[in-house]
Amino acid sequence: MHFHTLFKARSAMAIAIAAQTLTLAACSSEDSTQRAIEEVTVEASAPAAPAVSEVETATKTFTNPLNEGAPDPWVTYYDGHYYLAATTWGAAEVGLTMRKAKTIAELKTAEAVQIWQDDNPDRCCNLWAPEFFLLDGPNGPRWYGYFTGGAPGEDYVNTQFMHVIESDGTDPLGPYTYKGKLVERNALDGTVLEVGDKMYSVYSVWNETQDLAIKEMSSPWETVGEEVVIVKPTLPWEVQTHTVAEGPVAIQRDGRTFVVYAASACWGPDYKLGLLELTGADPMDAAAWHKFPEPVFERDDKRGVYAPGHNTFFKSPDGTEDWMAYHANDLESDVCDMGRTPRIQKFEWNEDGTPNFGTPVAAGTELPVPSGE
Q1: Total structural domains within the chain
Q2: Is residue 148 a contact partner of residue 108, using CB atoms and an 8 Å limit?
Q3: Which of 81, 139, 276, 368 meets the CB 3.0–4.6 Å disulfide criterion with 259?
Q4: What mean pLDDT comes out for the span 226-236?
Q5: Is 31 a catalytic residue?
Q6: Active-site residue among 118, 189, 246, 298?
Q7: 254 tagged catalytic
Q8: Which is more confident, 232 or 4?
Q9: What does residue 58 show for φ and ψ, rounded to 5 degrees?
């Protein structure tokens, strides 16, 4: 703040103003009858900067789970917002829902907005594991949603199919239009893999065991050619509760392609994640896939985390960190229902170029938010 003071003085004056910086211009005379005008410009010293509050200096944190009743979570960060979709497993009126928020803290309380609903009895109900990809379609970039759905009831093996919906624009919340079945057989948990200039669908199928299969895509909603099985659950940790391989999702880094998948069975505490790598040139060649012999993410009894699995990946807002979303249970006796809760945590990369997911973090643990938030 600047201000000016004009005053008369018969003699020289000494001015002392505590905690102020003075710029002084003065004229004076010893003649008692002479008027002298001294212009004193006093510049108040800037006040000390207030102490930054602990809230501002502390690292922003969050805790898992993100919310209740959202298994098989898909999370992405797009255009300044996080988006979360998950299994809804309801009747026709439930449909698919999605949450949107600027921060993880807001995501925890964001409203689940219905983005798709269908009364067709062949695909109306029991909607599982939605994933969304921004792909180039005939009319430019569009979000394509891949989900499993079928008829009412519990005859999942015979009624559940994989379906595709397309957004009208580039808003993940839609609106969406139904495009069709992805494959003409009962299947679940479809995801998209891009290698070179081709797209593939990787998904789970009910054979004698529940296997992972792959099929080439001719468009974001169509597949062509033969189906090839690339994983059968045969290792001891893949068959602890039941012979299951499901929930595949791809992650690529430094020219290498990995697929993470869930093994054992979601209705037991030993549901976990396994890892594949494409080591050959052709994804449609089963021999081109290498299965790692040990699980890469599994239960941690000391931390009270059971059946961690069915994950997806996303980047931090500034693009510098890799994060995974997955669901887990709090009790060993918990089952494969809507009580499974969505969780996220950052992961790293090993020196050999493989992903290192670490161990699942206990619910309620304070974790730094994704970088750039």
Answers
A1: 2
A2: no
A3: 276
A4: 98
A5: no
A6: 246
A7: no
A8: 232
A9: -75, 150
Distance of alpha carbon 257 from alpha carbon 155, whole angstroms: 35
Residue 59's pLDDT band (cuts 50, 70, 90): confident
Q: Could you tell me if residue 225 is left (phi over 0), alpha (psi between -120 and 50 degrees) or otherwise beta? A: left
Res 35: pLDDT = 41
Statement to judge: residues 331 and 189 lie in one domain = yes
Query: Tens digit of pLDDT for each residue in 133-187?
Result: 999 999 999 999 999 999 999 999 999 999 999 999 999 999 999 999 999 999 9
Q: Are residues 238 and 107 in the same domain?
A: yes
Looking from the CA of 137 toward its CB, the CA atoms found within 13 Å total 19
At which residue do the structure tokens 């949450």 appear?
Answer: 99
Residue 56 DSSP class: H
Report the amino acid identity of residue 90: G
Closest CA to 74 of 257, 326, 275, 246: 326
Query: What's the pLDDT tens digit per position in 4-42?
Result: 333 333 333 333 333 333 333 333 434 443 443 333 333
Residue-number span of the structural domain to which 19 is assigned = 2-44
Q: Are residues 213 and 81 in the same domain?
A: yes
C-alpha angle 153-158-159 in degrees, rounded to nearest 5? 55
Catalytic residue among 72, 118, 270, 298: 72
